[in-house]
Specification:
Blueprint lengths: L1 E11 L5 H11 L3 E7 L2 E9 H13 L6 E10 L7 E3 L20 H7 L43 H8 L20 E5 L4 E4 H13 L4 E4 L4 E6 L3 H11 L8 E3 L2 H7 E2 L2 H7 L6 E6 L15 E5 L4 H6 L7 E6 L14 H4 L5 E5 L11 E4 L4 E5 L9 E2 L7 E3 L9 E4 L2 E4 L9 H18 L5 E5 L5 H9 L2 E5 L1 H12 L6 E11 L5 E9 L4 E7 L2 E2 L4 H5 L1 H12 L3 H9 L4 H12 L6 E4 H11 L11 H12 L12 E6 L2 E5 L1 H12 L4 H26 L6 E5 L6 H13 L3 E3 L11 H12 L1
Parallel strand pairs: 2-5, 8-15, 10-13, 12-16, 19-22, 22-23, 24-31, 25-28, 26-30, 31-32
Antiparallel strand pairs: 1-3, 1-4, 2-3, 6-7, 6-15, 8-9, 9-14, 10-14, 11-12, 12-13, 16-17, 18-21, 19-20, 20-21, 24-25, 25-26, 27-28, 29-30
Length: 761
Amino acid sequence: MYKAIKVIVKGKVQGVGFRPFIYHLSKKYHLNGTVQNNLNGVTIMVEGQEGNLEKMLDEIKRYPPKLAKINEINIHQIPLAHYKEFTIIPSRKNGRSIPWIPADAAICEKCLEEMNDPYNRRFHYPFINCTQCGPRYTIINRLPYDRSNTTMKEFPMCHDCEVEYEDPSNRRHHAQPICCSDCGPTVTLYNQGGKSLAENQSAITQTVDLIKQGKIVAIKGIGGFHLACDAYQEKVVDQLRLRKKRPQKPLAIMVKSLEVARNLCYISSQEEDLLTSPEMPIVILKRKREGVLPPNISQSLSTIGVMLPYTPLHHLLFEHHQLECIVMTSANPSGLPILYKDAHLEHLQNICDYILTHNRKIDFPIDDSVVQCDGENIQFVRRARGFVPDPLKTTSNVDHIIALGGNQKNTFAVGKQNNIVMSPHIGDLENEEMIASFEEKLHHYKEFLGVKEVNVAVDKHPLYASTSIAKKLNCKTISIQHHHAHHVSCMEDNGLNEPCLGIILDGTGYGEYGNIWGFEFLYGDAKSFERLAHLKSTPLPGGEKAVKEPWRNAVGMLLYYWPQEGKELCMKLFPERLKEINIMEQMIVHQMNTPMAGTCGRLFDAISAILGICSISTYEGEAAIKLSDYMNRTELESTGEMYSYHLITHTPNQIQLDLSPMIYQIIQDKFQQQSITTIIQKFHNTLMSCCVQMVLKVVKNRPDLNRTVVLSGGSFQNVFLAREIQKGLQKEGFNVYTHKHVPCHDGGLSLGQIIIAAHQL
């Protein structure tokens, strides 16, 4: 039977070769009609034998292009139009659905083969791409995703590229960044003074030579400039750290191949899949002790961030066997936005020796994504290139709500109908440049999505930059408690709607009465929450200064718990700080610039300082990261040993955790020269135990509570802690959920904020 149908496919179906894929199916199954992009997705008008139509629909569902993500397929029977052929027709700009902005994708195998083929017209061309790979998000300036709406409009296609672009059977049909050496962007190498030294292949060859000679080169990629140097040369890595003012924070590396990565690190099958996926993120791997990498790549850590080459240019850098591993770190000075414009080159002159750039403009700068695996789950450390801006579906009415996130590891979220589009990782909103970058991205997202905010969700902290940004937007502001947002973020990440328990372990979050929270046991949902238990608060002498100098945090705890003996312990632990200890003692007595804090992050800081691991943090979370890294270094025997702690019940709804016995015992173990690894393992076991016991005590007092638990907050980046608390609770019959699609730290905060705002409204 001959019939006609209209098929509307929604989801990530633009910029991924979907229309050529449909065209191919039409030829395969002898069907006639049209296929077209609009803001709704892809619309297919097709007619032919009923059996062939069913086969086409089956292939769409089961074997779509690898970059596509189909959310919905709607099929309607329509009258026959008696099409004579099947054609791809121009995009329409109408439609009510959320416009899907395609993400950047790593070079595909077919393009890589062509680039390495001396007989191919794109041999060694560093901007080769097709519908299955190349820049997308970073080059778009408006929707729909057509070449005229991208930065590639500045490069008119040559005849050969135009033939490919217009040929529906070609892999590059409507590949918007299509180009070749005759018509596309070019690469240029400059010296520090801005003088052009070489172009195209010669520029790439010279760059490789310079890196081998121990030079630092800024390289413009898909989303911005990286700083690159030979990762095997310890002195040049030191020089890079010095120039970038990044003394301790780990540096990511890019390796030539999976084989090189295996020589340097242990890689599971799950980690291999991530390294080679179309997103090609940085994957945090455990490094091999016998590896040839110098220790200053990731100072004092057993792990390292590794990525494979994801652009044609990257592959060309590794082509001639001279290089197999290079440091690849963002070129911006610490704390400032990504450098991505050629106008930014002056900022690079004091950091790098040479600059390898190209003349394809970047409209949307973006960082590399960073992920880690815990053996079962994937955890986002930074959600950016490749994963952004894929929308997250929700059952909440988030339309025209914007959530501005937190101050650290910032992301914002924009609501459009029943979708949430989160920004990529922006960073810490601690200076005018970062705030301006945030506001620029927010403006672009509102334009892309056609959102005019009516309601803006912000963190309750009155001094966060987001609060002042919200005032400029001149609309209703909804203030949301930090840990409630973490709780709901993890609920939404797992599709949970019923009230549940939440363990929120993080660094700092504005609590009530000016106290700093961060070791919280909550119960609730997006509508409301109760704080049922928490860590006992201790003084934070100097406030923010104590966050950056963990030894101050330790002193605050010791002087608070044991005013006399504590001072002696402080002087023994930090003998070079006697004068400051005396001042801090007075600050605590007179409550001067000494907020009270009960947070997991500050607890880790204090123990790290007590054990002599990290007294001054040069980057956020350094003390905690270096402390928890000890849990990765050896195959730990599960002794189950732990320290003492007290659970104090004030009321059935208010339990307090007192870890002072543990802190005292840790200090005694240190003085008795116990193994640091053993102390740290016992410390982690204690935290796991007290979290499980707190939850058990809470549900014993309140047997009506749902036995579902979500785990959120930055401290759950500690893989051991997350895994063991989850296991411990599951043994007690709880259903436990961790984050899946957004980070557990403040990078996931805006997701919780936007859902809470939707329910409050």
